Amino acid sequence: MKKKKLLIVDGQGGGIGRQLVEAVLSAGLEIEITAVGANAAATAAMLKAGAPQAATGENAVVVCARTADCIAGPVGIAIADSLLGEITPRMALAIGQSPARKLLLPVNHCGNIIVGVEDLSLRRLMGETVRLLREWTAESEA
Asked: Most buried among 32, 60, 66, 142, by the most CB within 10 A?
């Protein structure tokens, strides 16, 4: 069976993307990971965490979102001009229009507040993301 493709997108320092890469790799999920940073620092952080392939910038997000089966990252990756302006309208559009499942972590930063969502620690968000990825990969095997 063909591995599902997970696209992890992050910006700024890449801390959330780094933790996502680490969590998915340590869970041993049979998923092909591609990491894309909105900047070089974010990309470097995800590569250092063990991402097997990575790229940087707007066009990389647009291209990779086309073929991803799932996209994960902070909620700001789907909001134009978020992450202090690093997410361009074209990036947010590509993520939003992608047919991929989206796992958007509700990180209440940069003026993007998710109303009604408990403010969880990043550790709990990573655990919940891995749980959802595990369920998702099991669905495709059934």
From this structure: 60
